[in-house]
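Hey, I'm writing a tutorial for new members on how sequence and structure tokens pair up, and I'd like a real worked example in the thread rather than a made-up one. If someone can provide the structure for the chain below, I'll link this post from the tutorial.
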Amino acid sequence: MGGWGLVKRAPLLEAEGLAIRIGERWLCCEFSLSLRPGECLALLGPNGAGKTTLLHTLAGLRAPSVGSVRVGGKPYADWPGSSVACFRGLLAQQQPDHFAASVLETALVGRHPHLGRWDWEGAEDLRITREALAAVGLEGFEARDVLTLSGGERQRVAIAALLVQQPRLYLLDEPLNHLDLHYQIAVLDLFRSEAADGRGVVMVMHDINLAARYADHVILLDGRGGVAAGTADEILQAERLSHAFGHPLRAVTDGERTLFIPD
């Protein structure tokens, strides 16, 4: 029992001495992070600061310029075949659809890492997929063509496909894209619940106040190579945020939460 507890608390994602350069430009100087089960991490910063590039580096899609990344205690090179897709799942910023497909077929793609080369989706895969569609408010959409969906509906299909993948580590690039306020909160509540069930969540976000509400840890890029990483309380400070975003922000406390508003 004690050994299982130690396994559960082991970091899902680690970066050590990480730095990223594109051409001659350094997106971030060296920093380290450790994300454990039950924790949510927000990546914040102005447009063009390198949030997506950092997320892709953490996802193993590109090598860091300096330092190392480990998932489940191992570098990506040590994961056999496609098995890493059963451990970490990535939500891309854009969802291109070049061909017609139903919502159910599109969401079912998330089951592929769990299937053998010649396997077909079975009853259990369909059950998991229908539950994921229901979780994002898409009951009754199974037969709809994804090419007929609104941007927000298509984003929720992508989130459902990621839930269907059932990774232990979620890496989300702007998960609130195209979503109205109701679904923004519903999606953040959903991934907060996933974290409470023992998973880890990393989210690229633009809304500082939603990051303050949902994130345990924050990485703040300033767009000039500077990076600050730590707990949400440590990083979400008006002076630090004002410097990163290039506009003065003021902290306002209502007794329960601190909000950041433009000055």
